[in-house]
Specification:
Layout lengths: L10 E4 L5 H12 L3 E6 L2 H11 L2 E4 L5 H15 L4 E4 L14 H29 L2 E6 L3 H4 L5 H21 L4 E8 L12 H9 L9 H12 L10 E4 L5
Parallel strand pairs: 1-2, 1-4, 2-3, 4-5, 5-6, 6-7
Helix pairs in contact: 1-8, 3-4, 4-6
């Protein structure tokens, strides 16, 4: 899809862009011609990933509001704007609810929900000022289906859908679009650690009978970041092979 979409001249920020889905999104945006910045909490890993992709890397913890403010200011100082924001940074702390510790709940909500607030809060005023921009939030199929052992993660991802719909209605008159993508079972470093028998059961539950590729999520990001989706806002696109 990147070959058919031209994002030349646009500046994109992808949080959590050092691996997996985030890294694939950054690669696709760069291929489409955008100037891309990725963030990660580890400075060395962020720099390495940025060099591999041929993009810009900035250390940024989405939970640290001062660090977020500093990173956004650095991008604006360099580029003068941010046209595309992809809120991808997230963590998991999976465990059954009866065993869940307060820190398991707090850390997931803080990163996967409040972290998105922190970043978006800094960028929306910039987009409002220039009356254009697109924000893409990465939710998850479990925000719609639920999943044992992921009460914290599913709660944050479900809340993100409400965040997307509400913000979209507020900023649409200013030329800003806000959408979400809910990936299903996508091949990443994290999913590779799942035992083979469990993986086989998961794949059987997917109508397309296979796991998705990070690039298949990235293709939808390209669509939402481009003018091809100029009348699309406040919605969630599911990328899950028919799982939900």
């Amino acid at each position: 899809m990147a070959k058919n979409i031209d994002l030349t001249g646009r500046v994109a920020l992808v949080t959590g862009g050092t691996r997996g889905i985030g890294k694939a999104i950054a690669a696709a945006l760069k291929e489409a011609g955008a100037t891309v910045y990725i963030t990660g909490t580890n400075e060395e890993k962020t720099k390495k990933a940025a060099e591999e992709l041929g993009v810009n890397g900035i250390k940024m913890n989405v939970c640290d509001r001062e660090e977020v403010k500093k990173a956004v200011s650095e991008i604006v100082e360099n580029e003068g704007k941010i046209d595309i924001l992809v809120n991808n940074a997230g963590i998991t702390r999976d465990t059954l609810f009866v065993r869940m510790k307060d820190e398991d709940w707090d850390s997931v909500i803080e990163t996967n929900l409040t972290g998105i607030y922190n970043v978006t809060r800094q960028i929306v005023p910039l987009m409002v000022k220039k009356r254009s921009g697109t924000i893409i939030n990465i939710s998850s199929v479990v925000g719609f289906t639920g999943n044992p052992g992921q009460v914290n993660y599913a709660s944050a991802k479900a809340a993100l859908v409400g965040f997307t719909k509400s913000l979209a209605k507020e900023v649409a008159p200013r030329g800003i679009r806000v959408n979400a993508i809910a990936p299903g079972y996508i091949t990443t470093d994290m999913t590779q650690k799942i035992p083979q028998k469990i993986k086989e059961t998961l794949i059987k539950s997917i109508p397309m009978r296979r796991e998705g590729k990070p690039s298949e999520v990235a293709d939808v990001v390209l669509f939402l970041a481009s003018d091809m989706s100029s009348y699309v806002t406040g919605t969630t696109i599911h990328v899950n092979g028919g799982l939900f």
